[in-house]
Amino acid sequence: MPSLIRASASDGAAAPARWAGAIARHPGLAIGTLVLVVVLAAALFAPFLGTVDPNRLNPMLRLKPPSASAWFGTDRLGRDIYSRVLFGARVSLIVGVSVAVLVTALGLTVGLLAGFLKRADSVLMRLMDALMSIPAVLLAIALMSLTKASVGNVIFVVALGELPAMARLVRSVVLSLRERPYVDAAITSGTRLPLLLVRHILPNTVSILLVQGTFVFASAMILEAVLSFVGAGTPPDVPSWGAMIADARGTFQIAPYTVLFPALALSLTVLSVNMVGNGLQAVIDRQARR
After folding, report:
1. Residue 9: pLDDT above 50?
2. How many CA atoms lie within 13 A of 137 on its CB side?
């Protein structure tokens, strides 16, 4: 019993050391995660962080510089930039997470089918090639011009532009896994295709999907900001970082803070997501080498 107590105590003491070692090896992962947690907390608890209605107009306070009453200043319509930045984080995070989940699920399905079914491969990959031949921004703008502005439509068109790269990545991984001896053994033993995919192929794609999903997350936030910047994104009554930057183009020279704060929020969030993705990739590569 004393030996067990000493072992558990040593394990408990070693756990912080292992975490400290992991953070020391990959500081970008820790910093990116911390920034994302802060952005997520700000988006969730925005109504309780000293904000006001982000769409409330007050022409008497238009283009007011940052002060104690308006921490980030006000825009050309007198709207509080601090409140709009915090509520705008909700749009970027919703779009980023939704697109990452949707693209990962669809890309996994398409990649698995294309990697194991030759007939499906020729059809699905030609469809993916057709989508990749059109720049994602132009495709999104064209599709948004045919529909009404809404967050749901933005998620759909952005996911459509990000799908081909994910599907081709999963397909390449599946084609590589098909040549492994344990897959040949499973096929020889009579394992059916659905069970083969779930038991032997899918677990080996999770790490790649996790890393690629973070990059899709960051790309989706940028593309949503671009769509809002050109007026083809979210509705005007929904605060968005891209729409804030577009709205401040005419007042940037006399009030640079109207562009600075939403642009800084977008840049830091995208940078943190990329840092998390790079950190996860480094961790996975390290485990693979070990």
Report:
1. no
2. 11
